[in-house]
Amino acid sequence: MSTIASSIFTPDTAARFDKLATIYPLKRSALIPMLLYAQDEIGFVSDAAVAEISQRLDLLELDVRNVLSYYSMLRTVPAGKYNVQVCTNISCMLRGGYELLDHCKNKLGIGHKGVTPDGLFSLEEVECIGACCWAPAVQVNYDFHDDLTPAKMDAVLADYAAGRGKDVK
Amino acid sequence: MPDVTLTVDGRKITAPAGTLLIEACKSAGLEIPAFCYYPGLSLQAACRMCVVRIEKVPKLATACTTTVSEGMVVQTETPEIQQARKATLQLLLGNHPLDCPVCDAGGECELQDMTFKYGAADSFYAEPKNHREEQKWSPVVYFDRPRCILCYRCVRMCGEGMDVFALGIQNRGSSSVIAPNVPSQLAGLLNSGEDQAQLDCEQCGMCIDACPVGALTSGTYRYKTRPWEMNHVATVCTHCGDGCKTTLGVRSVTDGSEIMRADNRDKSGMNGDFLCNKGRYAFDFANSTDRLTAPLVRKDGKLTPVSWEEALNFAGKRLRELRDQRGPESIGVIGSNRTTNEENYLLQKFARTAIGTNNIDHHRTADYVGFAAALAGRVDATASQRDVLSAPAILLVGGDPTQQAPLTAWNIRSAVRLNRTRLYVANHQDIKLKRQAKAFAQVAEFGYGAFIDSLAGSEAFATAVRAEEKLVVLIGNELRGADLAKLIAVFPAAKVALLADYANSRGAADMGLLPDALPGYQALGSSAVAAEYDAPAAPGKNLVEMFDAAAAGQLAALYVVGSNPVTRYNVDPATLKATFLIVQDMFLTETAILADVVFPSSNLYEKAGSVTNHYGDLQLVSKAGDRAGVRSDFELIVRLADKFGHDVKQLVPFGKRQAGIRADMGQTRGAQAGEADRHAVWLTANSMEPKLSPFDPFAILDEIQRLVPGYDKLLRLQLLSGNDQHLAPAAGSLVQIANRNDLVLPSNDTLFTSGSLTAYSPMLQDVQRHESREVADRLAAD
Prior knowledge:
The structure holds two protein chains of two kinds. In chain A, strands 2-1-3-4 form a four-stranded mixed β-sheet, covered by helices on one side. In chain A, a hairpin with a 2-residue loop joins β3 and β4. In chain A, 44% of the residues lie in helices and 11% in strands. Chain A is α+β, with helices and mostly antiparallel strands. Chain B is of the alpha/beta class. Chain B has four domains: 3-77, Ubiquitin-like (UB roll), CATH 3.10.20.740; 135-287, 2-Layer Sandwich (Alpha-Beta Plaits), CATH 3.30.70.20; 296-360 and 521-608 and 629-654 and 693-711, Rossmann fold (3-Layer(aba) Sandwich); 368-499, 3-Layer(aba) Sandwich (Dimethylsulfoxide Reductase, domain 2). Chain B has 26 helices and 29 strands. Chain B has a seven-stranded mixed β-sheet with strand order 15-14-25-24-23-16-17. In chain B, strands 2-1-5-3-4 form a five-stranded mixed β-sheet, sandwiched between helices. The longest helix of chain B is centred in the last third of the chain and has 20 residues, at 762-781. Chain B starts with a strand and ends with a helix. Classes of the chains: A alpha+beta, B alpha/beta. At the A-B interface, α4 of A face β8 of B.
């Protein structure tokens, strides 16, 4: 078990990582889960996280970065507290996904991958999030909001802004 | 594996089962194009260029991943396949800039060749090209991102071949890009186009060589010339003792012929694909503006340029005077590790027969006298460089090939990777090759004697090594004298090699640049060479004793050829105050600056001859570069001997003195056209060449072959056709010296140093600075 002397993660996450490194036939298979958990805890995958994960899995930092840069759901810069992910794939597009995206852009005053100045919201245009039956759909952090209209979207954003939204991580 | 028979394009071909289809076709002379496939590296199947039609297979299949099987029927060049390849090229060209007219790879680019062949001139891709700025990864590696076709050759070459893993691939799809292992603190700089970012690697440039296009370019060659404007000369690298063949691209300039680049486009050498940093880039000392280009004579305490006639006359006459007044024992000669065998032989012959002294030595970097003595009586006991690649088991005792003999390290890695060779490493340091080792034995520093004793014991390492039936033992130059003999005696059936430091370190010892042994390690008093030489039977002064004698005022003159002992042996310059010093060198080194006469000499890239690598593999050196105002060491020794008053024909057998060997010139016109060529063929077939001048190194090769045991086996045709051949030292009648002082002084060169040449190679200076200062500074500042 590759326990790290001074982990940058909380004891719970560190313990989880210790276990993750042991449950795959190949140690490096734990890389993607680790990156996701690290992002959930820190908000993004920091240089320090890359360094520690590479150490835990006996990889080069370059190997970690190769994988990290491949996946669009992994980010290396902080997002807002609530990351609004608007789907514009076919079902959502047909049901007004782009209108929703434009509405969010206007409402929040930021573009794709932007973060509001107060750090509360960030906005992303994403590929299919698997909620086609209830299109158009939006994912905020890990929480889904579906069958949306611009008006409904305003309510969703207002709930989050007022601290009433679920904060699922 | 048993052979299988298959049909390719209507031709029946046979190949061992398990062979890749692309390789089987190549052996049969059928070229299947491929960008990502590279022999010896893992399979990628990324480019889709090698698609072929295999009967009963529903879709086009990649020849680089398909193994041959019995009865397979393959088409490699049908309209369907051509269309598929053309489509692949159109996609690749979708984002490839059309800067071929200025691209370094223009003219030798695989993408260009394939586009020419399949005619993908038009593209359906109308979007603007995605341009990215080029990046400087290190002083010697530049990356032009849009030119990259993502074949992953560089990534695999760096990881699998070099065991460095400095390159990776980042992002996805059309935005994928090759990424270096620049520390994250520096990554921002790299992306902002600043050129100080440092790729942390061995700077070998293998990625550039493997790159099928011009995405990776060489810092020393980029935008300097076009490939077709150069002449390409395959010769032997002057740096370490491995003897890689390097192809020098040379171009005429006003004062000679400038070396523009070095690579290994001629893959016939024993290094195959491989070249290290020094072999690829460190030819630049030859183009240095610090080169001496006129002879210098000390006048009123200052070194002053004079004519050749004056300098040679002065040096020769003075040397003669001193020899006659103070006796031959008061004169010393020091040779070089980088001059050819012919020059080394000639130098010691000049010392022994013209001056009449055994005071001759060189900077010894491995104990070859001890090596030859330890192998006395054994035949077929020395390993060649090629044996390393094919050995089922290798024991490496001492040394650090990754730093000091990069080809040996490459061959060891390749053998382990491709042939599952078992590598055993015993070292006092954690050398990098430990990563490939099956077993590692930690040795105490200076504790190799104890380690050798432990090989007889029952420890796991010792038993495993002893159980190997076909073993190649590679020995670092830490092991000398008694330890060396003891180690060799442990493995009576193994093939052994002793690693040294420079291109012709082994040749210098073989050719007798030693005070106590004649060429071929023959005894001074009683051997064939001795009989012919009529030289003194008592051993002369070695290098250290020469400087001791100089300090005591007993060394009247010292003749130094291509060596810098003052720095190497930390000699106090005042020591040589009373000594008449003649130096032949490229540069005004610490030794040359003390001299009374300095002759500007050419380097190994500017002369012809032969060199012997540390395994004993003999290779031909060809003249590539040229510099007005310099002369080869061979010519200088002959001219000095002439002015010294020696009969040059006694020194170099040339011209009509030998019956039957004549120059056959002047017959190349008219009805007799071709006669000289035919005559040259005849001479070559009879191991002779026309020896027209006393400056022809081949004039002395006959004598080497006749007199030097070991070299009697050399095949002239092999040598002249540029092939390497393994020569072993003679098995008998060697010099016997008890309690001999081996005087080995390893130079401990790294990947980025090469003895005295380091200071004159801007590239090496650049790389060293980047390695040590800039990266460290920036990391500290962040």
